[in-house]
Amino acid sequence: MRTVITFGTFDVFHVGHLRIIERAATYGDRLVVGVSADALNLRKKGRAPVFSEAERLAIVGALKLVDEVFVEESLELKRHYIEKFSADVLVMGDDWAGRFDEFGDICEVVYLPRTPAISTTALIEKIKS
Length: 129
Prior knowledge:
Elements: E1 3-8, H1 15-25, E2 30-36, H2 38-45, H3 53-61, E3 68-72, H4 78-84, E4 89-93, E5 108-112, H5 120-128
């Protein structure tokens, strides 16, 4: 069995999120998804997510393609998470290209193109206006 792991905030869940999860799932037999903790998002993006950590976990965990979901507490723990879930493949959006190449010693690292013309930040701004 080939395990794939991916990570994201998955706030204001949209088709771009769905597409990356669908594409990540094609790289293996089991998909594990790390959902960024509220505190991690605050540190990483300077703002709290719209939906809480628990809500985002519930949304992502309800997807048929997702076999397991967990809270990602820190970007610095990527290696730990890859090893903990015995991941064979790490899939990330290409906005992170090159950032996780160091994990090539323990798994395959794949960067997928983001869905064009959609972003959570843009959606939030559109909703505000």
